[in-house]
């Protein structure tokens, strides 16, 4: 699948599940629960120990599998070789942008300021992760799109069932969710995470 097809799928799906686990098995179970619940874009963070084992377990699913918390080009290359179809960072890293461009992989760095966004755009980033989104209002997107009308933003951090639609109405091309999915899994187990994932997809379908 080429870079633009992956970007198109993410913008059509509207939801990317950001998966953090205390160990690989937990992350794999949470990922599978999200996929069973209908979420088709999974971001496996490199804060999860032995995350490459999770990639191996998910390689044959029909979901897009990406890598998050990628801080350098070495990690980005490791993720791509493990099967990552997109790369996400908490902030812009020039070396990661160059490597992803070389391999035709979408790179979505975290940005908060106009300068950071302009730098990421010039480096070939098609979607920018607005992070942390829980510190700002959805109207921020409209303000950014004034001077930078081509910026496509994916707010992440503090996104939940109650505010996701507000962000999408404000112009977000997708949203990154995760903390409440993790809480559901820890409190109610696999089935609770599946049901919450279904609720997210129902919200999108409304």
TrEMBL record:
Source species: Peribacillus muralis
Pfam families, alphabetized: Aldolase
Pathway it acts in?
A: Carbohydrate acid metabolism
On whether Membrane is a keyword of this UniProt record, the answer is no
Quaternary structure and interacting proteins, as annotated:
Homotrimer.
Family membership? Belongs to the KHG/KDPG aldolase family.
Entries under InterPro entries matching the protein: Aldlse_KDPG_KHG, Aldolase_TIM
Molecular function terms, GO-annotated = lyase activity
Q: Which NCBIfam families match?
A: eda (TIGR01182), PRK06552.1 (NF005119)
- Spell out the CDD domains in the cross-references: KDPG_aldolase
Q: What is this protein called?
A: Bifunctional 2-keto-4-hydroxyglutarate aldolase/2-keto-3-deoxy-6-phosphogluconate aldolase
Keyword annotations from UniProtKB, A to Z: Carbohydrate metabolism, Lyase
């Amino acid at each position: 699948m080429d870079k633009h097809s992956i970007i198109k799928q993410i913008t059509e799906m509207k939801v990317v599940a950001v998966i953090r686990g205390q160990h690989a098995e937990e992350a794999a179970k949470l990922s599978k629960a999200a996929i069973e619940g209908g979420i088709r874009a999974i971001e496996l963070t490199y804060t999860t120990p032995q995350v490459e084992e999770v990639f191996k377990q998910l390689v044959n699913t029909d979901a897009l599998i990406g890598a998050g918390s990628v801080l350098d080009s070495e990690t980005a290359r490791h993720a791509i070789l493990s099967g990552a179809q997109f790369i996400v960072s908490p902030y812009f890293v020039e070396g990661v942008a160059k490597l992803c461009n070389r391999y035709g992989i979408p790179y979505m760095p975290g940005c908060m300021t106009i300068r950071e966004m302009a730098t990421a755009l010039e480096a070939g980033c098609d979607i920018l992760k607005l992070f942390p989104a829980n510190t700002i209002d959805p109207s921020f997107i409209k303000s950014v799109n004034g001077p930078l009308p081509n910026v496509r933003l994916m707010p992440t951090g503090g996104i939940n069932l109650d505010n996701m639609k507000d962000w999408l109405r404000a112009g977000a091309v997708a949203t990154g969710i995760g903390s409440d999915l993790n809480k559901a899994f820890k409190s109610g187990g696999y089935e609770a995470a599946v049901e919450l994932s279904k609720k997210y997809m129902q919200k999108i379908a409304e």
